Amino acid sequence: MSKTIVIIGAGFAGTMSALSAAKLRAECGSDDEIDILLVAPEPVLSIRPRLYEADPLQMSAPLKALFDVTNVRFVSGFVRRIDTKRSTITVDLPSGEQDTLLYDRLVLAAGSRVVSPPISGLDEHAFSVDQRDEADELWQHVHSLADRPRSAERDTVVVAGGGFTGIETAAEMPARLRSVLGEKADIRVIIVERASDIGPDLGPGPRPVIEEALRSLGIELILGRSIVSVDAGGVTLDDGARIASSTVVWTGGLRASPLTEQIDAPRDALGRLVVDADLRVPGHPAIFATGDAACAMTDGLGHQTLMCCQHAMPLGRFSGHNAAADLLHRPALPYSQERYVTCLDLGPWGAVFCEGWDRKVTLSGSAAKPVKQQINSTFIYPPKADRETALAAGRPGITADV
Predict the structure, then answer these.
(1) Which residues pair with 36 in a beta bridge?
(2) What are the residue boundaries of the FAD/NAD(P)-binding domain, all occurrences included (predicted)?
(3) Given a cut of 70, is residue 168 above it in pLDDT?
(4) pTM of this prediction?
(5) How far apart (Å, rounded) are the C-alpha atoms in residues 28 and 273?
(6) Which residues contact 85 (CB under 8 A, 6 or more apart)?
(7) Distance (Å, rounded) from C-alpha 246 to C-alpha 99?
(8) What does the pLDDT look like over 277-327, one tens digit per residue?
(9) What is the number of other CB atoms lying within 10 angstroms of the CB of residue 134?
């Protein structure tokens, strides 16, 4: 009787987990012994790191052909419940019905979402670049500004949050606004960051480069301040200051999928399941967590994975391999990923590329821009739908050569 691996999520980690499990299954000649099911709303990989760019609805890659050539069965639906005692998941199907799937091994790759804190008016009036439909709503809104009369509200964009996503989003905005409103418009792009420095989580290494780029793009910084309310005409800060703006973009922090809360196991402050070296969830030998749903150690120096595709893709390869290895009586591979790089898009000014956890700048400006473009256009996309190529892409330990 065949065994079943169920993978929840078709993001970077879920896709690579499916390919990795299929690779080991093929190497063992066990296609008839193990079924691999991947459950997600659609067989599409959303290229989430690019949603700050133009035309965000195009930032996706189809997966159906890739799953077909690797004998991965795709199930369209939303996972409603994980029952760890019965080893089942409940799926809301597109038809409106529910289905129950039994698993022998479960890989939770359900990802993360941007957190919306309880700020007055935030949900009603702010935009996001977290999901394709949300980013497209912002894209369409910016284009609609051309139909409005000139005003401070129309010509001002407030980006809430000066982290990775906030910086990349803000850096794109001046050129985008000028293309819509014309060169004569009195454009303002303002980043509001509650920390005292821009890019607080990026550390001091790339900060001078980021500050130089933002200055050259005319982007204003308001640091050490928080937004306390948002309305149709702008934002109010915690010191009472008012910024008139009809375009507020929230880029606040991420939190793991709520599905992690259905598994009785330790979680970190971001809601991620704290996993063992083989990415297994402690106390649940049949469950692996991966991608943004997992908090794993990347090396022996105490560094933990971040919520980014740089970690999600390798995590997926290890989790899929280990889930299959468990069923095929093969040894598990401990996850490790010693190399870490940071590449931040800084709009028309260029980019900044850093090496290591201390983020030592090795390239900046126009010299770094082609690296960022190659990452965004090549490295983070799934392989072509050729069986040999697809299975090779699932090998644990692969990292992009950048």
Answers:
(1) 5
(2) 4-313
(3) yes
(4) 0.96
(5) 30
(6) none
(7) 43
(8) 999 999 999 999 999 999 999 999 999 999 999 999 999 999 999 999 999
(9) 17
Residue linked to tokens 């190529």: 389
Q: Tell me, rounded to whole angstroms, the distance of Cα 191 from its chain centroid.
A: 21
Residue that has been written with the tokens 């150690």 in this structure = 297
Distance of CA 350 to the CA centre of its chain: 22
DSSP element (H, E) containing 67: helix 64-69
* Superfamily holding 122-250: FAD/NAD(P)-binding domain (3.50.50.60)
User: How does strand 126-127 pair with strand 247-250?
Assistant: parallel
Angle at 361 between CA 359 and CA 366, to 5 degrees: 135
- Which phi and psi (to 5°) does residue 394 adopt? -90, 5
What are residue 247's phi and psi, to 5 degrees? Answer: -135, 100
32-64 per-position pLDDT tens digit: 999 999 999 999 999 999 999 999 999 999 999
Structure tokens at 304: 């933990």
Q: What is the CATH topology of the domain spanning 3-114+254-338?
A: FAD/NAD(P)-binding domain (3.50.50)
Joined together, the tokens standing for residue 261 give 């809360």
**Cβ–Cβ < 8 Å for 248, 235:** yes
Q: For residue 90, which amino acid is it?
A: T
The residue with tokens 């060169």 is 183
